[in-house]
Amino acid sequence: MPYRRLSALIAATTLTACAPGAADYEDPFVATGEVIALSGGQAGPAAACLTCHGIDGEGDGAETPRIAGLDEGYMIKQLNDYGSGLRPHDQMSPIARRLSDEDRARVARYYADMPARAAAPAVAPRADLIAEGRALYHQGLPGQAVATCAACHGADGQGVGAANPQLTGQSPAYLAAQLRLWKNRDRRNDPLDAMGAVARPLSDRQIEAVSAYAASLPHPSLE
Q1: 127-216 is classed CATH 1.10.240.10
Q2: What is the chain's Cα-based Rg?
Q3: pLDDT tens digit sequence for 145-171
Q4: Is residue 138 predicted with pLDDT exceeding 60?
Q5: How far apart are CA 69 and CA 31, in angstroms?
Q6: For a 10 Å CB count at each end of the chain, is N or C smaller?
Q7: Which CATH superfamily is domain 1-120 in?
Q8: What does the alpha-carbon distance between residue 161 and residue 166 come to, in Å, rounded to a whole number?
């Protein structure tokens, strides 16, 4: 290529890169939380959020949680913790590691703005477990220094502050699975280990019971 043509090409490329707004361009296929949720963004189509969490973020009624309507900051922290290994998960950790900080924030905002719909539990709640779980939820285990769930998640399960998520609209299976992860130290993304301290003294029956009760609490925006 003649020298003059090469110089002109370099100059044109430089001018294009420096044009107003060029550096701020965002690929429309990854630029919004909705597109990331539907396509998986940089994590790829197999990682699309809706494949597990549902088109409305409602979860599957089993061990895949409702994410619609959760606090945006809480969801960003969970994605960060999946990516860093503080909350290891076979599916979520690889997905989170492939999303940029910006994309994590976008998809969290998208689901936070959704109405808090929830899937019906895959297994019908048991009245006996709900009755047992009520006392655990509101009273804890004073003799074992186990705090009440209501202290952080509210008497109505709506959460107390952004760091303590809503429990309503989650399935009993999901809540029980998380308590077991805390108990076994397989989930460790609570800075003060508050959830680990609560979960470790609980028996399997107590975990099932308090999870059944928490999942039974109503939420005014659930459909």
Answers
A1: no
A2: 22
A3: 899 999 999 999 999 988 899 999 999
A4: yes
A5: 21
A6: N
A7: Cytochrome c-like domain (1.10.760.10)
A8: 10
